[in-house]
Please model this.
Amino acid sequence: MRIASIRETFYGRTFDVRAKPHAENVAYTAGYLGLHQDLLYLDPPPKIQILHCLDNSCAGGESLFSDGERAARLLLRHHPALAAPLRQQPVPYAYTRNGYSYARRRPLLHYDAEGRFENVFWSPPFQGARGADEPPLQPWLAGARVFEGLINGEEAMYQRKMQPGECVLFDNLRVMHGRTAFDAAGGGSRWLRGTYIAQEDFVSIATQIPQELADKANADDAVWYGELEEKLGAHGVWKAEAQEMVDKMA
Model:
């Protein structure tokens, strides 16, 4: 089954993630890349990201993934006061290089027009400059530090050294991704090729999934749905750690 059409960006239809000289951002170095979402300075950001591993023969370079929505809902549930500035105070994201200029402001916790939590926006490596007349940053930082701790928690993080031929598809508006540092000079290399799919195209295809397959996925106890509060109880260890972390910050 064809998933959807590729969403072309200023990077082209596809892009290569590999270390190179004079890299325009940290993604194209061999250094550690913290958890983030891609292209938050575009409107809208791409919904689906696909990364295909072509080579990962160097030391290091493990891919990192963490569920930002789950962390956000835990923070909202356990300490709404810490979460409030993350909803109210937008963060600037910007890209101005190679003849391109994009900028958008997005809150970490995004709500829809009817006041319902919708998704998260988190991309510290690609934040833009704040204005001098903006509200004090300290309240936002207090909540952001807790959120960052939640997504980087040992139980919240999925780590995998991708092998050539493997491909990962994930929700860029929910799942944070990053990577560990790797040795680009010690032999071997790390090379991923990526692309994006727009939300409307993915949803259009998803509505055609046979009902029996959808029912099977929804019945899986391992699947976590943010809208169902009872599902939080299935993650007791991580929930307890989250509560402890929030209490320390409060």
Notes: Residues 78 and 244 are 10 Å apart (CA to CA). The chain has a mean pLDDT of 86. Helices lie at 68-78, 80-88, 138-151, 199-206, 211-218, 236-249. Residues 6-248 form a domain with the Double-stranded beta-helix fold (CATH 3.60.130.10).
